[in-house]
């Protein structure tokens, strides 16, 4: 189940997005003492179809062993290596409002290979405060010694987000996670991921509404008949 280097090139974005899901499922299986897992069992744990899972893992050069399945530990290592999780990544959270506080205190970063190293804000009343064991610094202090391999997390209001992204790009940051509800413009070569909680809730509301309509067809028919 070794992964050929050539097989790691050109992995589709949709597959990359599912690799962390597989990694989480494998971690859960390992915690239960499971040594090997079939594609069907792993797919069920990850909430995907087994054919899609096998296709995704084939991009890593992992095909499992017929009749046996995948070695849980080895597959975890392959996916972690593909995701670049062999070492800790430094994270700077910019914006120490309510969301920034919550992200700073989130313990899940460390358990997944991400070390929150800097908390940044431009408000003089906040700079110097200690949050989740770290001292908040200004953007100028962060830029004074631009760290390599940094991932920037934007947790500012939308009006400030573009300026923050611009400063991160100027520092040489190539990876940005944006929690601000706005679209950011970044140059080619900078990867930006957007997390919009309100949009996700709206999508859930859509499905909830249609589930209710499907569950109550009689009332809907009566209303239509009497209108």
Automatic annotation (TrEMBL):
It is found in: Cytoplasm. GO terms for biological process: negative regulation of DNA-templated transcription; response to redox state. Pfam families: CoA_binding, Put_DNA-bind_N. NAD(+) binds at residues 95-100. Its main location: cytoplasm. GO terms for cellular component: cytoplasm. One of its GO terms (molecular function) is DNA binding. InterPro entries: CoA-bd, NAD(P)-bd_dom_sf, Rex_actinobacterial-type, Rex_DNA-bd_C_dom, Tscrpt_rep_Rex, WH-like_DNA-bd_sf, WH_DNA-bd_sf. SUPFAM superfamilies: NAD(P)-binding Rossmann-fold domains (SSF51735), Winged helix' DNA-binding domain (SSF46785). Residues 21-60 bind DNA. It comes from the Bacteria. Residues 85-183 form the CoA-binding domain. Keywords: Cytoplasm, DNA-binding, NAD, Repressor, Transcription, Transcription regulation. Modulates transcription in response to changes in cellular NADH/NAD(+) redox state. Homodimer. Belongs to the transcriptional regulatory Rex family. This is Redox-sensing transcriptional repressor Rex. The lineage of its organism: Bacteria, Bacillati, Actinomycetota, Actinomycetes, Micrococcales.
């Amino acid at each position: 189940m070794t992964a050929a280097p050539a097989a790691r090139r050109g992995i589709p974005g949709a597959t990359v997005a599912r690799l962390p899901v597989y990694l989480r499922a494998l971690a859960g299986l390992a915690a239960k003492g499971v040594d090997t897992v079939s594609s069907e069992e792993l797919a069920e744990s990850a909430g995907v179809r087994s054919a899609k899972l096998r296709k995704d893992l084939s991009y890593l050069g992992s095909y499992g062993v017929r009749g046996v399945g995948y070695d849980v530990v080895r597959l975890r290592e392959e996916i972690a290596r593909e995701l670049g999780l062999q070492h800790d990544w430094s994270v700077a959270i910019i914006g120490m409002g309510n969301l920034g506080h919550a992200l700073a205190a989130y313990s899940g970063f460390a358990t997944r290979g991400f070390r929150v190293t800097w908390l940044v804000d431009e408000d003089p009343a906040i700079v110097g405060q200690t949050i989740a064991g770290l001292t908040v610094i200004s953007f100028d202090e962060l830029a004074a010694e631009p760290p390599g391999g940094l991932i920037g997390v934007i947790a500012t209001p939308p009006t400030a987000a573009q300026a923050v992204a611009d400063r991160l790009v100027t520092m040489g940051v190539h990876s940005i996670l944006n929690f601000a509800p706005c679209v950011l413009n970044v140059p080619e070569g900078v990867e930006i991921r957007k997390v919009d909680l309100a949009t996700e809730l709206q999508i859930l509301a859509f499905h909830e509404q249609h589930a209710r309509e499907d569950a109550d067809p009689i009332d809907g028919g009566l209303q239509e008949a009497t209108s």
